[in-house]
Amino acid sequence: MRAVTRTAPAKINLGLDITGTRADGYHLLETVFQAVSIADTVTVALTESPEITLTCDVPAVPCSPKNIAWKAAQRYREAAGLQSGVQIQILKRIPMEAGMGGGSTDGAAVLLALQELTGNALPQEKLLEIAVSLGADVPFFLYGGTAYGAGIGEKLEPLPLFSTDCLVIAKGTAGVSTAQAYGAIDALQNPKHPPVQQLRKALEAGGTAAEIAPLCGNLFELAVELEEVQQIRSTMLEQGALCSVMTGSGAAVFGLFPNRESAESACAVLWKQVPFAEVCHTL
Length: 283
Description:
Elements: E1 3-21, E2 27-47, E3 52-56, H1 68-80, E4 85-91, H2 102-118, H3 124-134, H4 138-141, E5 146-151, E6 155-158, E7 167-171, H5 178-186, H6 196-204, H7 209-212, E8 217-218, H8 220-223, H9 227-238, E9 243-246, E10 253-256, H10 260-271, E11 276-280
Parallel strand pairs: 1-8, 3-4
Antiparallel strand pairs: 1-2, 2-4, 2-5, 5-6, 7-10, 7-11, 9-10
Protein backbone atom coordinates (compact mmCIF):
# COMPACT_ATOMS: atom_id res chain seq x y z
CA MET A 1 0.00 0.00 0.00
CA ARG A 2 1.69 3.18 -1.20
CA ALA A 3 1.35 6.23 1.02
CA VAL A 4 2.16 9.90 0.56
CA THR A 5 3.09 12.12 3.51
CA ARG A 6 2.71 15.88 3.24
CA THR A 7 3.54 18.75 5.54
CA ALA A 8 0.41 20.85 6.09
CA PRO A 9 1.49 24.36 7.17
CA ALA A 10 -0.62 26.78 9.16
CA LYS A 11 -1.40 30.31 8.01
CA ILE A 12 -1.83 33.72 9.50
CA ASN A 13 -3.77 36.61 8.03
CA LEU A 14 -1.46 39.62 7.88
CA GLY A 15 -4.58 41.58 7.03
CA LEU A 16 -8.23 40.52 7.07
CA ASP A 17 -11.39 42.45 6.27
CA ILE A 18 -15.02 41.50 5.60
CA THR A 19 -16.37 43.59 2.74
CA GLY A 20 -19.94 42.32 2.38
CA THR A 21 -22.25 39.33 2.13
CA ARG A 22 -23.35 37.39 -0.96
CA ALA A 23 -26.98 36.59 -1.68
CA ASP A 24 -26.37 33.01 -0.52
CA GLY A 25 -25.14 34.21 2.88
CA TYR A 26 -21.40 33.70 2.31
CA HIS A 27 -19.27 36.58 3.59
CA LEU A 28 -17.00 38.35 1.12
CA LEU A 29 -13.50 38.83 2.41
CA GLU A 30 -10.31 40.63 1.54
CA THR A 31 -7.15 39.28 3.07
CA VAL A 32 -3.43 38.69 2.84
CA PHE A 33 -2.61 35.06 3.64
CA GLN A 34 0.82 34.01 4.87
CA ALA A 35 1.95 30.40 5.28
CA VAL A 36 4.05 29.71 8.40
CA SER A 37 6.29 26.91 9.62
CA ILE A 38 3.96 25.56 12.35
CA ALA A 39 2.48 22.51 10.62
CA ASP A 40 0.53 19.27 10.79
CA THR A 41 1.74 16.11 9.06
CA VAL A 42 -0.81 14.31 6.88
CA THR A 43 -0.29 10.80 5.48
CA VAL A 44 -2.67 9.48 2.83
CA ALA A 45 -2.91 6.01 1.29
CA LEU A 46 -5.28 4.33 -1.18
CA THR A 47 -6.76 1.07 0.10
CA GLU A 48 -8.50 -1.92 -1.48
CA SER A 49 -11.50 -1.63 0.85
CA PRO A 50 -13.82 1.22 -0.24
CA GLU A 51 -14.07 3.06 3.10
CA ILE A 52 -12.54 6.35 4.14
CA THR A 53 -10.73 6.03 7.48
CA LEU A 54 -9.21 8.86 9.49
CA THR A 55 -7.02 8.81 12.59
CA CYS A 56 -5.47 11.68 14.53
CA ASP A 57 -3.14 11.88 17.52
CA VAL A 58 -5.29 14.59 19.16
CA PRO A 59 -8.50 13.10 20.64
CA ALA A 60 -10.50 16.34 20.26
CA VAL A 61 -10.20 16.22 16.46
CA PRO A 62 -13.32 14.59 14.92
CA CYS A 63 -12.32 11.50 12.91
CA SER A 64 -15.60 11.48 11.01
CA PRO A 65 -17.28 13.00 7.92
CA LYS A 66 -17.36 16.30 9.86
CA ASN A 67 -13.59 16.64 9.35
CA ILE A 68 -12.50 18.70 6.31
CA ALA A 69 -9.82 16.11 5.50
CA TRP A 70 -12.51 13.41 5.31
CA LYS A 71 -14.72 15.62 3.15
CA ALA A 72 -11.75 16.32 0.87
CA ALA A 73 -11.16 12.60 0.33
CA GLN A 74 -14.84 11.95 -0.35
CA ARG A 75 -15.22 14.77 -2.86
CA TYR A 76 -11.98 13.86 -4.61
CA ARG A 77 -13.11 10.23 -4.93
CA GLU A 78 -16.45 11.28 -6.39
CA ALA A 79 -14.88 13.74 -8.86
CA ALA A 80 -12.16 11.32 -10.01
CA GLY A 81 -14.37 8.20 -10.01
CA LEU A 82 -12.03 6.38 -7.63
CA GLN A 83 -13.19 2.95 -6.47
CA SER A 84 -10.50 2.54 -3.83
CA GLY A 85 -10.78 3.67 -0.24
CA VAL A 86 -8.68 6.35 1.43
CA GLN A 87 -6.74 6.06 4.67
CA ILE A 88 -5.77 9.35 6.35
CA GLN A 89 -3.49 9.86 9.34
CA ILE A 90 -3.03 13.32 10.88
CA LEU A 91 -0.32 14.31 13.34
CA LYS A 92 -1.71 17.55 14.77
CA ARG A 93 0.57 20.42 15.74
CA ILE A 94 -1.53 23.43 14.72
CA PRO A 95 -3.72 24.65 17.61
CA MET A 96 -7.47 24.15 17.20
CA GLU A 97 -9.97 27.04 17.02
CA ALA A 98 -7.03 29.36 16.47
CA GLY A 99 -7.78 31.01 13.12
CA MET A 100 -4.66 29.35 11.69
CA GLY A 101 -6.44 27.12 9.18
CA GLY A 102 -5.62 23.80 10.86
CA GLY A 103 -8.59 21.92 9.39
CA SER A 104 -8.34 23.62 6.01
CA THR A 105 -4.64 22.87 5.53
CA ASP A 106 -5.27 19.18 6.33
CA GLY A 107 -8.00 19.14 3.68
CA ALA A 108 -5.70 20.70 1.09
CA ALA A 109 -2.95 18.22 2.01
CA VAL A 110 -5.36 15.32 1.36
CA LEU A 111 -6.27 16.76 -2.06
CA LEU A 112 -2.61 17.20 -3.04
CA ALA A 113 -1.67 13.74 -1.74
CA LEU A 114 -4.47 12.14 -3.75
CA GLN A 115 -3.31 13.99 -6.85
CA GLU A 116 0.15 12.49 -6.31
CA LEU A 117 -1.19 8.99 -5.64
CA THR A 118 -3.41 9.02 -8.74
CA GLY A 119 -0.98 10.70 -11.11
CA ASN A 120 -3.02 13.94 -11.22
CA ALA A 121 -6.40 12.35 -11.91
CA LEU A 122 -8.07 15.77 -11.75
CA PRO A 123 -7.25 18.98 -13.64
CA GLN A 124 -6.15 21.90 -11.45
CA GLU A 125 -9.42 23.75 -12.12
CA LYS A 126 -11.44 20.86 -10.66
CA LEU A 127 -9.10 20.59 -7.68
CA LEU A 128 -9.63 24.31 -6.98
CA GLU A 129 -13.39 23.86 -7.30
CA ILE A 130 -13.34 21.13 -4.65
CA ALA A 131 -11.10 23.29 -2.43
CA VAL A 132 -13.56 26.21 -2.63
CA SER A 133 -16.43 23.88 -1.69
CA LEU A 134 -14.53 22.81 1.45
CA GLY A 135 -13.92 26.28 2.90
CA ALA A 136 -12.57 29.79 2.33
CA ASP A 137 -8.99 28.97 3.43
CA VAL A 138 -8.56 25.68 1.56
CA PRO A 139 -7.71 27.13 -1.91
CA PHE A 140 -4.80 29.11 -0.43
CA PHE A 141 -3.26 25.95 1.03
CA LEU A 142 -3.01 24.40 -2.44
CA TYR A 143 -0.33 27.02 -3.15
CA GLY A 144 0.96 28.52 0.12
CA GLY A 145 3.47 31.37 0.30
CA THR A 146 2.13 34.92 0.53
CA ALA A 147 -1.10 35.68 -1.31
CA TYR A 148 -3.90 38.21 -1.61
CA GLY A 149 -7.35 36.62 -1.31
CA ALA A 150 -10.78 37.99 -2.18
CA GLY A 151 -14.33 36.78 -2.80
CA ILE A 152 -14.97 33.88 -0.45
CA GLY A 153 -11.26 33.03 -0.55
CA GLU A 154 -11.25 31.51 -4.03
CA LYS A 155 -9.82 34.57 -5.80
CA LEU A 156 -6.11 34.28 -5.12
CA GLU A 157 -3.21 36.38 -6.33
CA PRO A 158 0.36 35.41 -5.40
CA LEU A 159 2.42 38.16 -3.78
CA PRO A 160 6.20 38.41 -3.35
CA LEU A 161 7.15 36.14 -0.47
CA PHE A 162 7.25 37.98 2.84
CA SER A 163 10.27 36.45 4.54
CA THR A 164 10.88 36.64 8.28
CA ASP A 165 12.00 34.30 11.06
CA CYS A 166 11.06 36.81 13.78
CA LEU A 167 7.42 35.79 14.08
CA VAL A 168 5.74 34.70 17.32
CA ILE A 169 2.32 33.02 17.43
CA ALA A 170 0.50 32.44 20.72
CA LYS A 171 -2.90 31.15 21.79
CA GLY A 172 -4.67 30.92 25.12
CA THR A 173 -7.12 28.27 26.29
CA ALA A 174 -10.20 29.86 24.72
CA GLY A 175 -11.24 29.09 21.16
CA VAL A 176 -13.54 30.89 18.76
CA SER A 177 -16.29 29.27 16.72
CA THR A 178 -16.07 30.57 13.14
CA ALA A 179 -19.86 30.77 12.94
CA GLN A 180 -20.04 32.83 16.15
CA ALA A 181 -17.27 35.12 14.93
CA TYR A 182 -19.05 35.87 11.65
CA GLY A 183 -22.28 36.48 13.55
CA ALA A 184 -20.47 39.05 15.68
CA ILE A 185 -19.03 40.68 12.54
CA ASP A 186 -22.56 41.10 11.17
CA ALA A 187 -23.55 42.97 14.34
CA LEU A 188 -20.78 45.61 14.06
CA GLN A 189 -21.94 49.17 13.38
CA ASN A 190 -19.70 51.27 11.09
CA PRO A 191 -16.44 49.55 12.09
CA LYS A 192 -12.99 50.83 11.12
CA HIS A 193 -11.72 48.55 8.36
CA PRO A 194 -8.07 47.46 8.18
CA PRO A 195 -6.07 48.81 5.19
CA VAL A 196 -5.72 45.52 3.31
CA GLN A 197 -5.12 47.19 -0.08
CA GLN A 198 -2.30 49.31 1.36
CA LEU A 199 -0.80 46.17 2.89
CA ARG A 200 -1.02 44.40 -0.45
CA LYS A 201 0.77 47.27 -2.23
CA ALA A 202 3.48 47.40 0.45
CA LEU A 203 4.15 43.67 -0.01
CA GLU A 204 4.18 44.06 -3.80
CA ALA A 205 6.87 46.72 -3.30
CA GLY A 206 8.94 44.30 -1.18
CA GLY A 207 8.15 45.98 2.13
CA THR A 208 10.10 45.03 5.25
CA ALA A 209 8.50 43.88 8.50
CA ALA A 210 8.85 47.39 9.91
CA GLU A 211 7.11 48.82 6.83
CA ILE A 212 4.19 46.41 6.73
CA ALA A 213 3.60 46.14 10.50
CA PRO A 214 1.51 49.36 10.78
CA LEU A 215 -0.72 48.06 7.95
CA CYS A 216 -1.48 44.67 9.52
CA GLY A 217 -4.97 44.42 11.00
CA ASN A 218 -8.02 42.22 11.42
CA LEU A 219 -11.68 43.29 11.51
CA PHE A 220 -12.49 40.25 13.67
CA GLU A 221 -10.59 41.86 16.57
CA LEU A 222 -13.52 44.26 16.93
CA ALA A 223 -16.02 41.39 16.98
CA VAL A 224 -14.23 38.77 19.07
CA GLU A 225 -13.87 39.97 22.65
CA LEU A 226 -11.54 37.60 24.46
CA GLU A 227 -9.49 38.78 27.42
CA GLU A 228 -6.73 36.32 26.52
CA VAL A 229 -6.35 37.85 23.06
CA GLN A 230 -5.92 41.31 24.56
CA GLN A 231 -3.44 39.99 27.11
CA ILE A 232 -1.32 38.28 24.45
CA ARG A 233 -1.34 41.39 22.27
CA SER A 234 -0.30 43.57 25.21
CA THR A 235 2.52 41.22 26.18
CA MET A 236 3.88 41.10 22.63
CA LEU A 237 3.85 44.88 22.30
CA GLU A 238 5.50 45.29 25.73
CA GLN A 239 8.21 42.88 24.56
CA GLY A 240 8.95 44.99 21.48
CA ALA A 241 6.68 43.63 18.75
CA LEU A 242 6.33 45.83 15.68
CA CYS A 243 2.68 44.79 15.61
CA SER A 244 0.44 42.24 17.32
CA VAL A 245 -2.70 41.06 15.53
CA MET A 246 -5.25 38.28 15.97
CA THR A 247 -5.33 35.90 13.01
CA GLY A 248 -8.42 34.66 11.17
CA SER A 249 -11.55 34.57 13.31
CA GLY A 250 -9.34 33.90 16.36
CA ALA A 251 -8.14 33.13 18.84
CA ALA A 252 -4.40 32.91 18.03
CA VAL A 253 -2.35 36.11 17.89
CA PHE A 254 0.82 36.78 15.91
CA GLY A 255 3.53 39.33 16.54
CA LEU A 256 6.17 40.58 14.13
CA PHE A 257 9.44 41.34 15.91
CA PRO A 258 12.47 43.35 14.77
CA ASN A 259 14.93 40.51 15.45
CA ARG A 260 15.10 36.87 16.51
CA GLU A 261 16.38 37.68 20.00
CA SER A 262 13.35 39.82 20.88
CA ALA A 263 11.01 37.20 19.38
CA GLU A 264 12.50 34.44 21.53
CA SER A 265 12.42 36.65 24.62
CA ALA A 266 8.74 37.44 24.06
CA CYS A 267 7.96 33.76 23.50
CA ALA A 268 9.59 32.87 26.85
CA VAL A 269 7.35 35.41 28.62
CA LEU A 270 4.23 34.18 26.80
CA TRP A 271 4.91 30.56 27.79
CA LYS A 272 4.30 31.62 31.39
CA GLN A 273 0.88 33.03 30.43
CA VAL A 274 -0.63 30.74 27.78
CA PRO A 275 -0.43 27.05 26.76
CA PHE A 276 0.82 27.72 23.23
CA ALA A 277 3.56 30.10 22.11
CA GLU A 278 6.10 29.49 19.37
CA VAL A 279 8.72 31.37 17.38
CA CYS A 280 8.35 30.46 13.72
CA HIS A 281 9.14 31.62 10.21
CA THR A 282 7.21 32.33 7.05
CA LEU A 283 7.15 29.88 4.15
